[in-house]
Design brief:
- The complex is a heterodimer of chains A (about 170) and B (about 500).
- With about 170 residues, chain A is mainly alpha-helical.
- Helix content of chain A is about 40%, strand content about 10%.
- Chain A has helices spanning about 25-50, 55-65, 80-85, 95-110, 145-150, and strands spanning about 20, 90, 135, 155, 160-165.
- The radius of gyration of chain A is 22 Å and the shape is flat.
- Chain B is α+β, with helices and mostly antiparallel strands and about 500 residues long.
- Chain B is built from 13 helices and 17 strands.
- In chain B, the strands form four sheets. Chain B has a nine-stranded mixed sheet. Chain B has a three-stranded antiparallel sheet with strand order 6-5-16, with no helix packed on it.
- In chain B, helix 9 (about 395-405) packs antiparallel against helix 10 (about 410-425).
- The two termini of chain B are about 20 Å apart.
- The chains are: A mainly alpha (about 170), B alpha+beta (about 500).
- Chains A and B meet through strand 3, helix 5, strand 4 and strand 5 of A and strand 2, helix 3, strand 4, strand 9 and strand 10 of B.
- Chain B: It comes from Olea europaea subsp. europaea.
- Chain B: InterPro entries: Asn/Gln-tRNA_amidoTrfase_suB/E, Asn/Gln-tRNA_Trfase_suB/E_cat, Asn/Gln_amidotransferase, Asn/Gln_tRNA_amidoTrase-B-like, GatB, GatB_C_1, Gln-tRNA_amidoTrfase_suB_CS, Gln_synth/guanido_kin_cat_dom.
- Chain B: Its main location: mitochondrion.
Chain lengths: ~170, ~500
């Protein structure tokens, strides 16, 4: 059998979830992450088609503010925040679920601007790539500081990492 | 001097599983309840009772089986025998002390980045070519995300929509005792991924233990088309894959060690029906014989339900094969499909292959088992000999060098399959480890053929050759001396 996830689907056998720290912190963190990803994607498009991508300088100022409605709505479904939180193992109070949904929607809409780009003459790329080869030889090297790694494990007993028993057995 | 110790039985010592457990009478269909292994005293009584009832049942089963065909596909995970893990330089040694082969990358510590090794790509291309696949010159890695204690990063680096190889096939020869014949099974895809760690469950239920030595070890996942129809075909497909990866030198393919793992997907449908039945997955198969038996059991289980009008009891689920009880049991019924939230792995560049690179590897491939079998058949050997000689690439190479020096094909085959194989089995040695090389075998054969020594003496000479590192002439001398001495002693006793 290959490495596989537990084949259960119900939420009763969940392992301990991470509590969201605070509303503001997480939404900022998410936004920053999405922004950097958007910039990466935008840069790729700019490199590929310098003529077709039209960048409106006015929009650049608008991007910095949170509470704008964007003209191009994303064609994705509205986020099912409850499900997203479950799959990410983040526990949210009901009021947080309600608060987060429109904020996440805003970020998705912000990305949605990319859909305005005309991709007629652009060949699809399977992923964003650099030019250099980044491969490694098959020569073993033992990591020097394994002790430090193991010392940082919360529960390490008899040379094994001790974990709570997950209900799904193999 | 009776050398019956070395006059071995003509053994199929290299076949992966003994044929004794299967009854030859029934041909294709086997009732697993007839062949119960691992008996204990308590089981023997019930076994006897079962035998009586199963004989009447097996006739009923055969009737039921006639109306259904099984559709079987196999997903195989092959652990590559590279020196390092897939994305970091940690060595991997089976059986090492737990949690000794770790580093920030394979432990999934924050900030660590994966770097792919060239050997993994090379192995994947070798296997893709050997399976006659179309290689994707541009492929990528994706994250397969789920949470489990043996998965340090919370995702597995795999290939989702653009695997490195697709659309191939594997040629398999079914051994004679299972009906013989040639089959061609389709291969859907081959892709690269990393292994998870090992999760051990302790006896008392409060906690489990994780060993991350294995986390990050490269795997090749080989998915077959659902072309198999019986347990035997599935077991032979798996055996052929094992032969193939051993021939290529990319893996040692040991099911017991976990370097070759098979999951079976099986469904049955009434003969003539076009649409597939409900698919059931079977895990925890540790040998080729379990593959065969589990499939037979599952076919009979599903056919029985169908015949009793309870076909809706067959649900899409994962079942475990229990070796002790010789049956499949339900694991947990799937509540909807798992959502792995695949997306392209941002920390790894795409995998680009050039035509020259692929051609270079294609040229370096050894003669594959299928080609060897056809070549040996062409030499006039019968199928049984062919299957034996091609099972282990080292045995085939030994045979080939003997033939190259001019030895008689049939004689060389007989020596290898008879005495030499028996010796290797007794001493638990591989053909590279015994004290007889192919050159000496050639000399021995030509001495016998040329009349220098008789066949009977030849056997005794062979014993000296295989036990001691001495040239053929000395071995012949020693044999004669021993012969003379033993005859003398005999004379003295009689006289």
């Amino acid at each position: 059998m290959g490495p596989g996830p537990p084949t259960d689907g119900d939420s009763s056998s969940r392992e301990p979830a991470i509590r969201a720290y605070s509303t503001n912190e997480t939404s900022n963190y998410h936004q920053i992450k999405f922004i950097t990803m958007a910039i990466r994607a935008a840069l790729l498009l700019v490199r590929a088609t310098p003529l077709q991508f039209s960048f409106n300088p006015k929009q650049a100022l608008v991007l910095k503010q949170n509470n704008r409605n964007y003209a191009v709505k994303s064609s994705l479904e509205p986020p099912d925040v409850q499900r997203l939180a479950e799959t990410a193992r983040i526990s949210l109070a009901p009021h947080e679920v309600e608060e987060f949904a429109p904020k996440i929607q805003q970020v998705i809409d912000w990305f949605g601007q990319l859909q305005a780009v005309d991709l007629q003459n652009v060949a699809p790329a399977i992923r964003a790539d650099n030019e250099e080869e980044t491969l490694r030889d098959d020569s073993p090297e033992i990591f020097e500081n394994r002790d430090a790694i193991l010392a940082a494990v919360p529960c390490y007993e008899d040379s094994y990492i001790k974990v709570p028993k997950v209900l799904n057995k193999e | 001097m009776a050398l019956t110790f070395f006059r071995g039985l003509h053994t199929h010592s290299f076949l992966m599983y003994p044929s004794s457990f299967l009854s030859r009478k029934n041909g294709m269909l086997y009732c697993t309840m007839k062949s119960i292994r691992g008996q204990t005293e308590t089981q023997e009584k019930s076994q006897h009772q079962l035998k009586v009832s199963t004989q009447t049942q097996s006739r009923k089963h055969d009737d039921i089986f006639k109306n259904f065909e099984a559709i079987i596909g196999i997903e195989t995970h092959v652990q590559l025998s590279t020196l390092t893990k897939a994305f970091c330089s940690c060595p991997y040694n089976y059986g090492a002390q737990p949690n000794t082969s770790i580093c920030p990358v394979c432990m999934g510590l924050p900030g660590a980045l994966p770097v792919l090794s060239t050997k993994v790509i090379e192995s994947a291309v070798k296997v893709g070519l050997a399976l006659n696949c179309n290689l994707s010159l541009s492929s990528k890695f994706d994250r397969k995300q789920y949470f489990y204690p043996d998965l340090p990063k919370g995702y597995q680096i795999s290939q989702f929509d653009i695997p490195i190889a697709t659309g191939g096939y594997l040629d398999v020869d079914i051994p004679l005792e299972f009906g013989g014949g040639h089959r061609k099974f389709g291969i859907t895809r081959v892709h690269m991924e990393e292994d998870a760690g090992k999760l051990l469950h302790t006896g008392n239920g409060s906690f489990s233990q994780v060993d991350l030595n294995r986390a990050g070890v490269p795997l090749l996942e080989i998915v077959s088309e659902p072309d198999m129809r019986t347990g035997i075909e599935a077991a032979e497909y798996a055996a052929e894959l094992q032969r193939l990866v051993r021939y290529l030198g990319v893996s040692n393919g040991n099911m017991q060690e976990g370097s070759l793992r098979c999951d079976v997907n099986i469904s049955i449908r009434p003969i003539g029906q076009l649409e597939f039945g409900t698919k059931v997955e079977i895990k925890n198969l540790n040998s080729f014989s379990s593959v065969s038996r589990a499939i037979d059991f599952e076919i009979s289980r599903q056919a029985l339900l169908h015949s009793q009008g309870q076909a809706d009891q067959i649900v899409q689920e994962t079942r475990l094969w229990e070796e002790g009880a010789q049956k499949t049991v339900t694991m947990r019924k799937k509540e909807g499909l798992a959502d792995y939230r695949y997306f392209p792995e941002p920390d790894l560049p795409g995998v680009t292959l050039t035509e020259e690179y692929v051609d270079g590897i294609r040229c370096s491939l050894p003669e594959l088992p299928e080609m060897k079998r056809r070549r040996y058949e062409g030499m006039g050997l019968n199928m049984q000999d062919v299957l034996f000689l091609t099972n282990d690439i080292n045995v085939a190479d030994f045979f080939d060098s003997a033939i190259a020096e001019g030895a008689d094909v049939k004689l060389a085959a007989n020596w290898i399959m008879g005495d030499i194989a028996a010796y290797m089995k007794n001493e638990k040695l591989s053909i590279n480890e015994i004290q007889l090389n192919s050159h000496e075998l050639v000399e021995l054969i030509s001495s016998i053929k040329g009349g220098t020594i008789s066949g009977k003496i030849g056997k005794e000479v062979y014993t000296f050759l295989i036990l001691f590192i001495i040239p053929l002439s000395s071995a012949i001398e020693h044999t004669f001396i021993c012969c003379v001495v033993s005859k003398l002693i005999l004379h003295l006793i009689i006289a």
